[in-house]
Amino acid sequence: MLESAATSLASILVLGTGFALAAYTYHKSYKYFVLKKMSNAFEPGDPVLDLAAIGKDLPLSKTAAATHWIERPEQSIVDEIVAGKEVGHYHLFIGEKGTGKSSMLLEAMRKIDGDGVAMFEAHADLEIFRIRLGKALDYEFHEDYMGSYFSERGPRDTTALLDIERALNKVEKVALKRRARVGRPLVIIINQMHLIRDDDDGKDLIELLQQRAEQWAASNLVTMVFNSDDYWVYERLKQLSTRMAVLTVLDLPKHQAIAALKNYRRRYFSEVPSSEILEEIYDRVGGRLNFLNRVAKSQDMLATCEEIKRVEKTWFLNQCWILGEEMDDDVMDQQKWAAAAVVLATALVDKEEEMEETYDPAKGHILPSYPLHIAQEIMTRADFVRALDRLNLFSITSKAEVRASSVPMHIAFREIVAQPGFREHLQATIDRIAAIESLGRTREIVAKDLVWGGKYEIKKSYGGVEVSLKQEGKKRDVTVVEEEDDDDDGKSDD
After folding, report:
1. Which segments constitute the AAA protein C-terminal winged helix domain (predicted)?
2. Which of 93, 128, 255, 432 has the most crowded Cβ, counting Cβ within 10 A?
3. Helix intervals (H) in 220-274
């Protein structure tokens, strides 16, 4: 019996030891392969770069850039950042939609074949943000870990924000090994940061990313690049930033815009338009790269310019048109917002008369602008202008200057303000809003007896004031208001 028990115990020990060694080996190998996969995500030849380049309509070969790409002044700075040569800072790229921020980043990645770089698109939903981060880093968040079957709480029994923190911890380990081997920091690019919601969850996410960016910039481990169209992201990062560098990406100046248009036209139609046509196109759409690209691809370029302006004007009118003096009081809140936007657009058009020049023969368009605090004063509201920036109706630059979102949008402002009777219509809307607000602050008392022809008779009587109603020879509704005796303390004499 003892021999059988000893044999059983030995078998259990052998099996237990075998299972323990197997589990330990699996656990260690899993952690090793997690870091190995993440390290491979930063190796050259990432197919994500090719897909992004196709989506952005950029050339894939290294020799095509000279003929199909306009070298912006900021491109050399972006190349240094993406190549890991610019250390000690993390970066915020800010500019209007369509100015070429993402295209410059992709071009810089193409030059180094994506070596040491990971790029992904932000999203308002934290779960989707987590998945996109995991895809860029080739990290599964332990969702394929078999050990979770034997634990009471699985690794994914948590929040998306904690998963993002765990992923960044893994990135730190990979960056330490890579810096010892290569001597350059990793680069993580988060595109379209403005898509993150401006709420508590979004602020927590931005704070988490910024804390890591500050820490990694100080240690030269990872350079983080945030790309945003909207000003509110800059405001949020500015509060806690010590190592943030801001790169503002604006429209192309006139000579570069015309050169870009020539290159685009040569690419799609194998022709070079005349200087007069190129000048007129620039006058209509400015130096916005996405506008120039659409114009260059079209058969009738001037008609496309007119269509771009019409779309911008329609977008503004659909969002912000004012309803005049016949406005119903149910839409007053929306009309406050719309009237403030129209007042600001009118002020920008009027400011052109005060400017020394609005068009430079060499630089091109000089759009009128107001400092952010002055724009808020003009609108008489401080909470509207950032929402207008998100809708791409106005633009807030990194220097806190408010102006039209594009040259076609400003031309649309001019046409709207120049309409016959526009200013009277705007003033009527403002007066109607003021009247509705005044009604909301007014309380009306109606004495129906007086409407029916009655009269009130008020006279002082013994112990108070007597109020009576006289109507058609009758006297009724007698009310006596007693006067309080100052010497009476409310107690009766005993």
Report:
1. 318-437
2. 93
3. 231-238, 254-269
